[in-house]
Amino acid sequence: MTFVVLLSSCSTDDYVPLRNPEKVVQETEIDWAAAADSMQRATYDTYLGAEGTFVQDNQGNSTFHYWPNAHALHVLVDAYLRTGDGAYLSKMKSLVRGIKSRNGGSYANVFNDDMLWLANASVRAYHATDDPEYLEVAEFLWDEIRLSWSDDVLGGGITWKKDTPFQKNAVSNGPAAILGARLYEVGQDPEDLEWAIKIYEWEKNNLVDPETGLVWDGVKLENGEPVVNKDWIFTYNIGTFIGAGVRLYQLTGEEQYLNDAVKTARSMMTSPKLTTEGILRNEGQGDGGLFKGILVRYLTELIQEPAVAASDREDFIEFLQFNAETFYNEGLSRPAMLASPDWSSAPEARTDLTTQLSGLMLLEAAALLDQEEYF
Q: Which of 53, 82, 203, 368 is most buried, with most CB under 10 Å away?
């Protein structure tokens, strides 16, 4: 049975979690805020490297990588918004300046997705602090990223890299739609919203399965024909498509955007490509270690959207809470507070920064939803 047949054999109204019914998470009262605080401290102490940036892993590899450091800014913003602790302000500022320094004195990067991760985190930092330096970073990167849009290749879309004109991926379009929407919220420039809608529609038409709402990784031009790899479906691309749909619904009031986000989220929860027995699947370490945390970030925003139907919200909350409780009880080492790429089993000796950040995003999401009385 193929994946498509499996999903199309039941409607989204017949959703049944793919869980082992014999698996029961240990019932304990979890202080999610305290857990997030502990993991924030452990992450900072374990991974802090040069100039406020973070290193590759906990085993002495001090290599600087742009894109996980961009997500490190996200988690510092998460903590600052949740706690109001001013100590996070200097960490955020050191990090964003350190990224520029470690990247050769510029925020520009050949990877459009790297720049998009930083730009989105920077807009959030601006919202949290009103510090114009963060907005300047985001606007600079937005100008850089839009240069990689081309109508004459594959009918639009932003390339994965500046030097891959015939390859366009979800990772460089979902976050771009979110960024355009975020910048429109800040400056009310209609052009930013137009870009967000245009990018979203291109991704939906080219990289989203119309039956399930699941997101294919990318499309490339081969011998003049578009080729889509429909076998590559990753959690982070699901997350950014959901996040873009939620934002565009909030800005335009058009229900189709929210319907898209809900459809994609419901399919995600039961897809064997994305979950194993109700737990977001292990996508390894390295780049894949960060994927699940990105999905969690935008699934959380979907849960928070008041227009989501109560039955859908309850399912999303149950799914995310099950993941968070499983990770807290089984996938998080103590006292080191290091994350496993498999949220249902203990980590091994090496934990990459990417993997650690995904776990931290999950705990921050749990702390936020608990604070807002969803959990």
A: 203
329 has pLDDT over 70: yes
Quick one: which of 299, 319, 338, 308 has its CA closest to 46? 338
Alpha-carbon span 227 to 245, nearest angstrom: 25
**In the 8-state DSSP scheme, what is residue 308?**
S
pLDDT(218) > 60: yes
Confidence of residue 24 (pLDDT cuts 50, 70, 90): low
Q: Where are the domains of the chain?
A: 47-131, 148-273, 275-375
Total Cβ atoms within 10 A of residue 130: 9
pLDDT digits (tens, 9 = 90+) for 47-85: 999 999 999 999 999 999 999 999 999 999 999 999 999
Q: Residue 314: name the closest of 266, 249, 255 by CA.
A: 266
DSSP label of 329: I
Mean pLDDT in residue range 261-271? 97
Task: List residues bridging with 225 in a β-sheet.
Answer: 222
Name the fold adopted by 148-273. Glycosyltransferase (1.50.10)
User: Across-strand partners of 2?
Assistant: none
pLDDT at 20: 58
Q: Rounded to an integer, what distance in angstroms lies between the CA atom of residue 13 and that of residue 44?
A: 43
d(CA 179, CA 244): 9
Specify whether the CB–CB gap between 132 and 145 falls below 8 A. Answer: no
Residues 290/236, Cβ–Cβ less than 8 Å: yes
Residues in the chain: 375
Contact 242, 265 (CB under 8 A): yes
